[in-house]
From TrEMBL:
Phylogenetic placement of the source organism: Bacteria, Bacillati, Actinomycetota, Actinomycetes, Kitasatosporales
The keyword DNA-binding appears for this protein: yes
Pfam families found in the cross-reference section: YjbR
One Gene Ontology MF term: DNA binding
Keywords: DNA-binding
Official protein name in the record: MmcQ/YjbR family DNA-binding protein
Annotated transmembrane regions: none
Amino acid sequence: MVERKSPARKAPKAVRDTWGKVRAFALGMPGAVEEFPWGESVAKVNKKVFVFLGVEDGSWPLGVTVKLKDPEVHAHALSCPGAEPAGYGLGKAGWVRVPLEEKGAPGAELLCDWVEESYRVIAPKKLIAELDAQ
């Protein structure tokens, strides 16, 4: 279970920087848009969420939630410190929440790889072809 933080506490700068890089990467994917359902940032493609980015106001620990279909990649993500299957039944569909403030949390490059995999699971083939052409 994720502990709720005091809204006044911000994540360390390095963690916020990692989160910012992952957010920018996600929003740079073909057709990606940012929306704020439930008060948190999500990146969507074709009206479907491909990464939950959470909130940056310090009310919750920073983290990302991605859908990982590849069994090895899914297991690797779950082996990260504090990682867990996503709540609300999403974990059963391959969604993994990876906290960024844990010691030993993955870096931006690996997180971006996972965001891309999640995007590829959700995005239509036309946009995946556009991504591959870049």
